[in-house]
Amino acid sequence: MASATPTGNVISIEGLSLDYGKVNVLHSLSLAIPRGKITVLAGANGCGKSTLLRAIRRLHKPSKGEVLLEELSLHSLGEKALARKIGLLTQSPSAPEDMTVQELVRLGRYPHQTLLQPWNAGDAEAIEQAMAGTGVGHLRDRRLGSLSGGQLQRAWIAMVLAQETDIICLDEPVNHLDLAHQLECLELVDRLKQQFGRTVVLVLHDLNLAARYGDTLVFLRGGEIVATGAPADLVTEAMVADVFGVQARVITDPVHGRPLCIPLRLAGTSSE
């Protein structure tokens, strides 16, 4: 069911620093996540993309700064209350192979369960809508171990969708998927925005997919934000060389009108 998308920022990150032991991983990051849009975190391996995404969901405690949700600090919310606000799908999630798709999707309703309010009709409806929206309804009785990579990824996204959160964080959802399943997955993500008005924060390695599906790109390097903006503004030959260390030709995709990056060679190397 489509819904009107309010304007404004739903998440504000203010001066966020985060350490792993004695190693500083994120350095004084400030970022606004626009409501009802797809924001893609991009950059070279080890730049801090996944760490930032997990910090948004409060899986990592910052050493400095804070993450605000509707101007409310995340750390003022209980875990279940936060899980009703922000859904997260990590890289390579795991579940027992003999679990069915429907059993997996049911896990998304956990944040809504209490001793005084156990399973109800609203939970059943949310599960049915999540499976229908991700196209896995016909797989409800299939065991996870019997699914293809694309089917399994859609089942996991259905589980997150069943949480009925306004914000969905996805860490490399197309990792290890073939081209067809990458497109299938990202078209689904786009529908979450278009039809359900969800705010999506997405980590992607593929710059062309980021430019095609992202409304806002956030380029990170060495735990710092290098640039934030629309794909047409950020995906330039100079920026690709600076952020990814690659010399590239950037053209306009003749089909989608978005930037299309053609890698040529490592930055600083000769073509001869």
From TrEMBL:
Keyword set includes Coiled coil: no
Provide this UniProt record's keywords sorted from A to Z: ATP-binding, Cell membrane, Ion transport, Iron, Iron transport, Membrane, Nucleotide-binding, Transport
List the membrane topology term(s).
Peripheral membrane protein
InterPro entries linked: AAA+_ATPase (IPR003593), ABC_transporter-like_ATP-bd (IPR003439), ABC_transporter-like_CS (IPR017871), P-loop_NTPase (IPR027417), Siderophore_ABC-ATPase (IPR051535)
Q: Please name the GO terms that the record assigns under molecular function.
A: ATP binding; ATP hydrolysis activity
Q: Which GO BP terms, alphabetically?
A: iron ion transport
Per UniProt, subcellular location reads as:
Cell membrane
Which SUPFAM superfamilies does the record cross-reference, listed alphabetically? P-loop containing nucleoside triphosphate hydrolases (SSF52540)
Q: Name one GO cellular component term.
A: plasma membrane
Domain ABC transporter positions: 11-247
Origin superkingdom: Bacteria
Concerning its family, UniProt says: Belongs to the ABC transporter superfamily.
User: PANTHER family, per this entry?
Assistant: IRON(3+)-HYDROXAMATE IMPORT ATP-BINDING PROTEIN FHUC (PTHR42771)
**What name is this protein filed under?**
ABC transporter ATP-binding protein
Q: Which organism is it from?
A: Rhizobium sophoriradicis
